[in-house]
Design a protein that fits this description.
Chain A: One of its GO terms (biological process) is phosphate ion transport. Chain A: One of its GO terms (molecular function) is phosphate transmembrane transporter activity. Chain A: InterPro entries: MetI-like (IPR000515), MetI-like_sf (IPR035906), Phosphate_PstC (IPR011864), Phosphate_Transport_Permease (IPR051124). Chain A: The chain crosses the membrane at residues 41-65, 85-118, 130-163, 183-204, 300-322. Chain A: It is found in: Cell membrane. The complex is a heterodimer of chains A (332) and B (259). With 332 residues, chain A is mainly alpha-helical. Chain A has two domains: 33-73; 89-326, MetI-like fold, CATH 1.10.3720.10. Helices cover 72% and strands 0% of the residues of chain A. Chain A has helices spanning 3-8, 33-73, 76-79, 85-121, 124-139, 142-167, 185-209, 213-221, 226-255, 258-263, 281-288, 294-324. The longest helix of chain A is centred in the N-terminal third of the chain and has 41 residues, at 33-73. Chain A is flat. Chain B has one domain: 3-Layer(aba) Sandwich (Rossmann fold), CATH 3.40.50.300. Chain B contains eleven helices and ten strands. Chain B has helices spanning 43-49, 80-86, 102-106, 108-112, 119-132, 136-139, 152-165, 182-195, 208-214, 238-243, 248-254; strands at 5-14, 17-27, 32-36, 60-68, 71-72, 87-90, 170-174, 200-204, 217-223, 230-237. In chain B, the strands form two sheets. Chain B has a six-stranded mixed sheet, sandwiched between helices. In chain B, strands 2-1-4-5 form a four-stranded antiparallel sheet, covered by helices on one side. In chain B, a hairpin with a 6-residue loop joins β9 (217-223) and β10 (230-237). The longest helix of chain B has 14 residues, at 119-132. The model of chain B has no long low-confidence stretch (mean pLDDT 93). The chains are: A mainly alpha (332), B alpha/beta (259). The interface between A and B is medium-sized, with 27 and 33 residues. The complex binds adenosine-5'-diphosphate and magnesium ion. The site of magnesium ion (MG) has 2 residues of chain B, from α1. Magnesium ion binds next to α1 of chain B.
């Protein structure tokens, strides 16, 4: 191997057979064995960690599938209900998805708005404390959210539900009657919204703060107002990140157990969001798992597997959305 | 369409730090004025007061008057957003919007301000501006590709096209060629010569050959020491500044005898 080649590709070299270049300072061997050992050690550790993660994931998936199959293939008689497994899990999927979507629909504009306020509008003295308070919301345990939702927030919403069922009950989601405890799917969804709010807010805030000054100033120098500058420079820069933040929030909402289990007084699927009824997969598992045996336990595990698949699909979709904008992301 | 600029006793601050002090200068319409001087003497700072971009930075303030024709842009009640759409700016590093296509970058000034236009008009403005920036032939077949895919010199000319698309009165340029190769630099310099017919141009440059090539008049700024405010030392015809300056420190700087 020639000298120039050796030097040109020194970083990529893994063998230690080549000679040091002639102009190497005396006493400083370019063939740095200890450094190379460090590199190898680190790449070994990373590889091992990667493999462990894959093995654990595969193990979890294998466990879920193995224990879920009996319930999925069982007949209604074996399950001791009048539908197959799919008839059982369908309403739960609907409840989970509806609650999470409402949560995201509420939390996204609020979270993005607060993040923008902190990053681009609020004076520094106000921005920082507000940021801390939002971050603190993330530190509250979900049991506390559940208890608050069931006892305080739900009760506070009852008058609103009463109004909705009185005036808008021609819309199926607001009728025909309303819950008098407020422990409904809509309450659960709103509690979930509060819980995912800090995720969306703090991720978006970090993103917005990282908008290159270069592009903000480009917009301002063209005669943009602050809001126009945000539309031209901040949002396009943060677009992929906002999608990821929303997906993370959606994942959290879909998988949230404790809060929903405490808030919701579960029942069969109904269209109404403000009357008793409906349930979600995590709440169903949390409420039923400790007393479940045999085929019932298998049924709950299968429900968990369905949730796993839903979150996976959501994540893949999010990646596809992000990849579509790659050319225009500013990364090039 | 182009306007004169006049600064009267202009002081520029970053918080309590006086960065530029007591500038008095009158720049005629349809001329090219070069700002030269050592690093840190306040060329960029002063330039950014001319379109009220200075105050975008936290705690940055300006005292004194800056007249665009006869209108003081720092008078109370003047909307900085309106000032900026009349006084365009090209930055040191090319900064096309990375998420926008070449066409949308050119039209950004209209889109930002919510101005709607038909396709024919948009095409006409795009073509006129890109031709004005000597970029049309290079990009006419890929107007829908991202602007960030162009070379540095092309990106800078795209930024110039974006600036002239909205037909400002004045164009400010802060070392527009410092990130460019010599060929692109020549392209931009030629362009400045052409733009002079329609616009008042102020260009900050570190390159004295460039100043003498492109400008009609040259302003020399200097600073007495770190922490001291920058000042306008001499402002005269470029030929005069480079052949027979009337202030000693200008001559020292021009001849490279500067400390
Ligand atoms: N954003 C800023 N905040 C505080 N001081 C600044 C800022 N930008 C520039 N300065 C200071 O203002 C002075 C002039 O800087 P600048 O206008 O960038 O000089 P030039 O463009 O001539 O090199 C320098 O002392 C510099 O440190
Ligand atoms: Mg500068």
């Amino acid at each position: 191997m020639s000298q120039t080649e050796t030097r040109g590709s020194a970083v990529a070299q893994t063998t230690d057979t080549e000679q040091p270049p002639v102009d190497a300072p005396a006493g400083v061997p370019l063939d740095n064995r200890s450094g190379r050992f460090g590199d190898r050690l680190f790449s070994g550790i990373s590889l091992a960690a990667g493999i462990v993660i894959l093995v654990v994931l595969a193990g979890v998936a294998a466990f879920l599938i193995r224990d879920a199959i009996p319930a999925v293939v069982a007949s209604p008689e074996e399950l001791d209900r009048d539908t197959s497994f799919w008839g059982y899990v369908g309403p739960l999927v609907a409840g989970s998805v509806v609650a999470s979507l409402i949560a995201i629909l509420v939390a996204t504009p609020v979270g993005v708005g607060i993040a923008l306020f902190i990053s681009h509008y609020a004076p520094k003295r106000l921005a920082q404390p507000l940021g801390y308070v939002i971050d603190l919301l993330a530190a509250i345990p979900s049991v506390v959210y559940g208890a608050w939702g069931a006892l305080v927030f739900g009760a506070a919403l009852v008058p609103g539900y009463a109004w909705l069922s009185e005036h808008l009950s021609f819309i199926p989601i607001f009728g025909p009657t309303h819950s008098t405890t407020g422990r409904t799917l809509l309450t659960a969804a709103l509690v979930l919204a509060v819980m995912v709010l800090p995720i969306i807010t703090s991720l978006c805030r970090e993103l917005f703060l990282q908008t290159p000054k270069l592009h903000e100033e480009a917009a301002l120098a063209l005669g943009a107002t602050r809001w126009e500058m945000i539309k031209a420079a901040v949002f396009p820069f943060a677009r992929a990140g906002i999608v990821s933040a929303v997906m993370l929030g959606l994942g959290r909402a879909l998988g949230e157990t404790m809060a929903v289990a405490l808030v919701l007084s579960p029942g069969p699927l109904t269209a109404s969001l403000i009357s008793t009824g409906n349930s979600t997969i995590p709440a169903e598992i949390a409420l039923g798992f400790s007393e479940a045996f045999g085929i019932r336990r298998s049924e709950l595990i299968a429900a968990g597997l369905v949730l796993f698949v839903i979150t996976l699909v959501v994540n893949v979709l999010a990646r596809l959305v992000v990849a579509r904008y790659k050319d225009f992301s500013g990364a090039n | 369409m182009s306007k004169s600029i006049e600064a009267i006793d202009l002081d520029v601050y970053y918080g309590s730090f006086l960065a530029v002090e007591g500038v008095n200068i009158r720049i005629e319409p349809r001329t090219v004025t070069a700002f030269i001087g050592p690093s840190g003497c306040g060329k960029t700072t002063f330039l950014r007061t001319m379109n009220r971009m200075h105050e975008v930075l936290p705690n940055a303030t300006v005292k004194g008057q800056l007249l665009l024709d006869a209108e003081d842009i720092y008078a109370s009640g003047v909307d900085p957003v309106r000032v900026r759409s009349k006084v365009g700016m090209v930055f040191q590093r090319p900064n096309p919007f990375p998420t926008m296509s070449i066409r949308d970058n050119v039209l950004a000034g209209f889109r930002l301000n919510g101005i709607r236009m038909g396709k024919a008009q948009a095409d006409e403005i795009t073509e006129r501006s890109l031709k004005g920036a000597n970029l049309w032939n290079e990009v006419k077949d890929r107007l829908d590709k991202p602007g960030s895919g162009l070379s540095g010199g092309q990106q800078q000319r795209l930024c110039i096209a974006r600036t002239i698309a909205v037909q400002p009165e004045v164009i400010l340029m802060d070392e527009p060629c410092s990130a460019l190769d010599p060929i692109s630099t020549l392209a931009v310099e030629d362009l400045i010569g052409e733009l002079k017919e329609h616009y008042t141009i102020v260009i900050v440059t570190h390159n004295m050959q460039q100043a003498s090539r492109v400008s009609d008049k040259t302003a020399f700024f200097n600073i007495a020491g770190t922490g001291k405010p920058g000042k306008l030392i001499e402002f005269d015809y470029t030929d005069k500044i480079f052949s027979n300056p009337s202030v000693q420190s200008t001559e020292d700087y021009i001849t490279g005898r500067f400390g």
